[in-house]
Design the sequence.
């Protein structure tokens, strides 16, 4: 049996967002963003640009993030930019603080991102990404051990027995 919807065409203005306008921490792009040490390579990336000439460069996070998105989704440069434009999770991954339906850069910028982030830099970034969770887990263990040491030891004494005389 089929029941026809009385609502007719769905209007995007009335489209319900189940996450109440907030991003879910369980999304794969949110989780991946937490794993990448964005700040570790920002200075090295910034050294490639002159201090006062030309238009401001896109951030390291945007450049690397766009290349990661392209590889993970297996898309062309044009399709990558379109995916970013349409998806708030991808925009968050790139370090954009709020959703915009405008593309953050032209597809031709992907060529520049690839030139600026060569294979040697990408290799070092991959090493840091792999190391980052391991170092975090080691720090958590050290913190737990430190907290255990700070606790008062349990009473180790014996029970004194009194004798009736």
Sequence:
């Amino acid at each position: 049996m089929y029941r026809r919807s009385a609502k007719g065409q769905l209007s995007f203005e009335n489209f319900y967002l189940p996450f109440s306008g907030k991003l879910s921490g369980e999304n794969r792009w949110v989780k991946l963003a937490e794993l990448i040490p964005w700040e570790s390579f920002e200075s090295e990336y910034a050294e490639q640009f002159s201090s006062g000439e030309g238009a401001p460069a896109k951030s390291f996070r945007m450049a690397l993030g766009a290349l990661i998105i392209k590889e993970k989704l297996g898309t062309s440069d044009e399709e990558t930019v379109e995916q970013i434009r349409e998806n708030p999770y991808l925009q968050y991954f790139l370090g954009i603080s709020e959703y915009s339906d405008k593309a953050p850069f032209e597809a031709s910028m992907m060529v520049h991102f690839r030139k600026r982030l060569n294979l040697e830099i990408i290799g070092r970034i991959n090493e840091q990404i792999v190391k980052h969770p391991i170092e975090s887990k080691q720090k958590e263990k050290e913190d737990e051990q430190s907290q255990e040491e700070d606790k008062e030891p349990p009473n180790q004494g014996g029970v004194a027995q009194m004798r009736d005389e």
